[in-house]
Amino acid sequence: MIRTSDLCRRFHVGDTLVHALDHVDLSIDKGDFVAVMGPSGSGKSTLMNMLGCLDTPDEGSYRLIGQEVAELDDTALSRTRNRHIGFVFQSFHLLPRLTALQNVLLPLRFSDVDPMLAQDRGKRLLDRLGLSDRMDHRPNQLSGGQRQRVAIARALINEPPLLLADEPTGNLDSKTSVEIMELFTELNDGGQTILMVTHEEEIAAYAKRLIRMRDGKIEQDTVRNEQAPMEARH
Ligand SMILES: Nc1ncnc2c1ncn2[C@@H]1O[C@H](COP(=O)(O)OP(=O)(O)OP(=O)(O)O)[C@@H](O)[C@H]1O
Ligand SMILES: [Mg+2]
Predict the structure, then answer these.
(1) Closest ligand 1 atom, CA of 49?
(2) Does the global pTM surpass 0.85?
(3) Which residues, 6+ apart, have CB-to-CB distance to 151 below 8 Å?
(4) Can you say how many angstroms the Cα of residue 229 is from the centroid of all Cα atoms in its chain?
């Protein structure tokens, strides 16, 4: 599904050049559930933005579902993003004036999906995520865990092959974090490919594969319950 080779992203900060991504080789297969860990500044968010087509590489290749992302123009890039990627963020990013259901339907606003069908799909998804009695609530009337579930429903409304989550439990208490991870596990059991960034080992433990980053490089890539680094999977 994803294959990067020699992926580089650099930032000029004052006089220094920061290698946020330094020749990253990474493959992710359909059905993977990957946790990305690493110290602050190691390049985790930069990698997520790159894989999510929010940013483009300075060097190297990124193929998403067979398509070389660097070759896409802006229109094609946003179409690819809409179709293939669902995003979940630490701070939910819900629109405060919209209801849960309206937030979930946002990504379909400019699509050609029939509005009635869209409503139906949104309701079914919220129902599946345990929010059937919260559809008409606004974000400030929801708990943190409920807000994150609305954000997850919004990320999934287009049925994207890849779900990217940058510290999805960063603003949640531990009990709610576990609920969100159980939901991710359930989605992954249903075939959803997931890549998430986390600072917490207990959260990473829900993933099937763990990637550790340092200084813009992949330092370790292991499958859960195995000690040996999976060099071959890079
Ligand atoms: N837009 C930017 N402009 C300049 N430097 C940037 C930019 N984005 C990231 N960086 C730098 O790139 C490096 C990697 O940043 P990144 O946000 O990917 O780290 P991270 O692993 O997500 O850290 P954290 O755990 O704190 O979220 C850092 O040194 C950061 O300062
Ligand atoms: Mg980050």
Answers:
(1) 18
(2) yes
(3) 88, 89, 92, 93, 94, 103
(4) 23
